[in-house]
Amino acid sequence: MIGTSSKKGLSEPISVCRSQRALSKRYRSARLGLCLESATQLKPFATDVIKAVREEIAQILPIEPTLIRQAKGKPTVILIVGVNGTGKTTSTAKLARYLGSARFQRAVRGILPRTRSAQQDAERCTKDACAPRVMLAAADTFRAAAIEQLGVWAERLGVEMIRGQYGADPAALCYEAYQTAVKHEIDWLLCDTAGRQHTKTNLMAELQKVKRALGKLDPNAPQETLLVVDATTGGNALSQAREFQNALGLTGLIVTKLDGSGKGGIVVAIQDELGIPMRFVGTGENIDDFAPFDRQKYIENLV
User: Fold this and answer.
1) CA-based, 20 to 30 A from 286: which of 30, 94, 188, 201?
2) Is the Cα torsion angle 178, 184, 188, 193 positive or negative in sign?
3) CATH number of the 76-302 domain
């Protein structure tokens, strides 16, 4: 929250310089910095400045999250990427849970899972929603216990998982996973990749190889490439997003650890500079602590 210069509350004038520095540090956005500079000159009270900043952030962020659309007649591939320690594997599991939930099916009412016939569609649907088939690909063949961790999630969720040996080529594993997904009429294939530093050219090239391998089987795959960002990371997240964007072409962000007010401001700068929207947020450790991005709620918690 933007503070006041007095304990009497938001009716007291704020410190212009202090607030400008705080906003600049939090959002890393020149556009918002100029907004605050103008607001603090024209509006001497904190309530007015907060309102102005919220309005400016609302102009930057999308009104509604872009829904993940299911490909017709083939698996929809989602590639999950990010640096080490952001929570990619857990986010992959949460996304798998969400895609198989009634919440998601209601959001995309009318888009049914891929099946061979209308009769099969009817058999797989309940009164409220259809149950799409989800498969996980354990493409993190580097981190110790990464495959086992995703395997535990797959068992809990009741979904299939393709795994290989540690040290195996992740591109080959994702290629095999797609072939298996087609054979078993899977609706969603989620590829969990190893965490990597965005500054390591060879590791980024490995992800490009994964994308090329999937593209050999489906020119449109992966349909989604989502970068997992830690809300507490700060300005380094912008550098991460820029490098992953240049290497892969991102379609959105999953922001984790967004379980407190004032967190995740860096995604405003990512949206503003790179045009990469926040698609999902993780707000806790439970499997259902995961939801599509809500602009209004996000802004209220942030400022």
Assistant:
1) 188
2) negative
3) 3.40.50.300
165: helix, strand or coil: coil
- Mean pLDDT score, 194-201: 90
For 87: left if phi > 0, alpha if psi spans -120 to 50, otherwise beta; the answer is left
Non-local CB neighbours of 49 within 8 Å, separated by 6+ positions: 2, 14, 19, 36, 39, 40, 43
Lowest mean pLDDT among 33-37, 129-133, 150-154: 33-37
Domain boundaries, the chain: 16-60, 76-302
Q: Please state, in angstroms and rounded to a whole number, the distance separating the CA atoms of residues 141 and 136.
A: 14
- DSSP strand E in the chain: where? 76-81, 134-139, 160-162, 188-193, 224-230, 252-256, 278-282, 290-292
Instruction: Tell me the pLDDT tens digit for each residue of 167-194.
Output: 999 999 999 999 999 999 999 999 999 9
Q: How is residue 55 written in tokens?
A: 């309005």
pTM for this entry: 0.82
The pair phi, psi for residue 21, each rounded to 5°, is -65, -40
